[in-house]
Design brief:
The chain has helices at residues 11-31, 33-38, 40-53, 62-79, 85-117, 124-134, 139-148, 153-176, 181-186, 190-198, 205-209, 217-244, 251-260, 263-277, 279-283, 288-304, 309-315, 317-340, 345-356, 359-369, 372-400. By secondary structure, it is an all-alpha fold. The protein is globular.
């Protein structure tokens, strides 16, 4: 039984909290300049983290699982309705390079952390594999690699807690970077400058970007129903392909299962094909981005909740150090190589976010900041990490196991 004020089975109370705190975060962001600079996404995340650590809300509940399993899949197509692939291909190609440069930081951080801590953390070779895969794509890779390397349950649980805490804190840091003069002075910031140019005088950026627009019942019906259909078709096809493609060590079959059997990758792919082929239909639907963004705010609340400080102190504080090393090295390498190859600050930030948190958190950050031209490209690039991360994580795991 949970020792929190709100219990895990208080379903409606928890839903009320998620929906209410997401709304409060959005309202604060659009009303106050300090909140706009901090961003509603960070407010949502930090508020949830504080309440979970103060034992007011539980760190686990079926409600949070529902957000991961149903809310996020619906948000993805809604946010991609304007993502005509023919229009964004050039920008995606450039961002892909930055994504891989950031992935170099993940691998370097994993290697440095492993050799510093391998003698004091049992099973670090397995954790290194899981976290390398996770920090080049997201939690999908973490789950796959933990199964592949048969990591003990307690080790997996401890790594998840450390991952959640550091990821939440890192997203907070990334959100703040664009507001710091030090970085604005040293990197180009075209997307930030575009948002500032389009802002209404006397109104903060968030309120200006999310200004009122005409929307009809028909728009809502088409947006929501299209999202449900795209998710249903994609997930069913991924299930069918996953069952049809043989398992084993064959590289081609493994690659095909990774591409066609991954429901999120297939969802993104099918949505992009649909909105490109039927661009006239999807581009006329109003309100899809607003609905999708609100769903993403529910996600930001949820990812802050599992970051339990007391649990990580009790279970494995050194794992926290290992994960922190990985994230810090990723940030330093991303900023360093991004500067050398003349990427903008916004491209560096979303690429690093896509590595550490996955494409969903990166897209959500771009949305919350108003960097509209980066939303679809980073979703495309980030989803490739689902495949790439698995292979790199596997290679790291096999190498670490030899020590």
């Amino acid at each position: 039984m949970s020792n929190t004020l709100i219990k895990p089975d208080d379903i409606w109370i928890l839903w009320a909290f998620l929906a209410g705190w997401a709304a409060v975060s959005i309202c604060l962001e659009q009303k106050y300049k300090w909140a706009s600079k901090m961003s509603g996404a960070v407010i949502a995340l930090v508020g949830a983290m504080l309440l979970s650590n103060l034992k007011i809300i539980p760190t686990e509940s079926v409600v949070y699982d529902t957000v991961w399993g149903y809310v996020i899949p619906l948000a993805i197509p809604l946010l991609l309705f304007q993502a005509n692939i023919l229009k964004i291909w050039k920008e995606s190609g450039k961002l892909l390079i930055m994504f891989f440069l950031s992935a170099v930081g993940t691998v370097a951080g994993s290697i440095i952390g492993f050799f510093l801590l391998k003698d004091v953390i049992p099973g670090l070779d397995k954790v290194g594999a899981m976290m390398t895969g996770s920090y080049i794509g997201g939690g999908v890779n973490f789950a796959a690699l933990s199964t592949k390397f048969e990591a003990p349950g307690d080790l997996v649980s401890s790594a998840v807690v450390a991952d959640n805490m550091i990821m939440a804190l890192y997203i907070f840091v990334l959100m703040l970077l664009p507001s710091l003069h030090f970085f604005r002075k040293r990197f180009s910031t075209p997307h930030i400058e575009e948002v500032e140019r389009n802002s209404v005088t006397g109104e903060n950026n968030a309120a200006s970007y999310w200004k009122s627009k005409e929307i009809s019942l028909k728009d809502i019906a088409l947006a929501v129903s299209s999202a449900f259909i795209l998710v249903a078709v994609s997930f069913k096809l991924a299930e069918v392909f996953g069952n049809l493609i043989p398992t084993g060590e064959n590289f081609i079959f493994t690659l095909l299962r990774g591409i066609l059997g991954d429901k999120y990758l297939l969802l993104t792919t099918i949505t992009l094909i649909a909105v490109t082929v039927f661009s006239n239909f999807f581009e006329k639907i109003r309100g899809a981005q607003e609905i999708g963004t609100y769903l993403i705010y529910l996600f930001f609340v949820v990812i802050g909740i599992p970051a339990s400080i007391s649990m990580i102190i009790k279970q494995a504080p050194l794992l926290l150090v290992f994960v922190l090393i990985m994230v810090v090295v990723n940030m330093l390498v991303s900023l360093g190589l991004g500067k050398v190859f003349k990427f903008s600050l916004e491209e560096i930030i979303v690429a690093s976010n896509a590595n550490i948190g996955g494409p969903t958190t990166a897209a959500a950050m771009a949305i919350s900041k108003g960097w509209t031209k980066l939303i679809a490209p980073i979703m495309l690039v980030g989803t490739l990490g689902y495949i790439v991360g698995n292979y790199i994580g596997s290679a790291i795991g096999y190498w670490f196991s030899t020590f």
